[in-house]
């Protein structure tokens, strides 16, 4: 997973609005958090195709977080986008875009799906999941990437006279087997190292809370707004 900041002079710990992009290495999809002014320019700097954008998550309706949204949606329309786009945000975000489309006389050639942010799982995309936790005092996003199994050494398995079948799948997961003659087949010797999962926390805190500190304890990356 690739993480790119889309606003200038941004860093991991800060107290201002932030826009960043998540690129899934195993897919072409791009996920964007907030849409600040100039985000299209920053996408081009990082050589990322705007048409690969599949999901946009807007944290709130602050002008810093939505100033580039209408321009981005219009650009997608101009390049002839046909696949649908999913936008996640507060309930009033849809009314904001409807008014912008009305007064700018703009229509989109693709379907835009709106999802209201609520506590729970909001995105489940293969091995990547995003959870949202909304309470009275804080706003939190948790992105979890599952651990990926290593590459199975097929030639090495064949050299050991292992017959292709369900056994290969079990060995790839690291299981070991004892043959009737006492010989042990260790699955970890037939696969490369597993790719560790990823745990990213995005906090929007109005007050410090025990739940927030407990949730970030095992996180590998933290973004605080």
Automatic annotation (TrEMBL):
InterPro entries cross-referenced by the UniProt entry: RibonucZ/Hydroxyglut_hydro (IPR036866)
GO molecular function, one term: 3'-tRNA processing endoribonuclease activity
Keywords: Chloroplast, Plastid
Keyword Heme recorded: no
The protein's name in its UniProt record: Ribonuclease Z
Organism: Chondria sp.
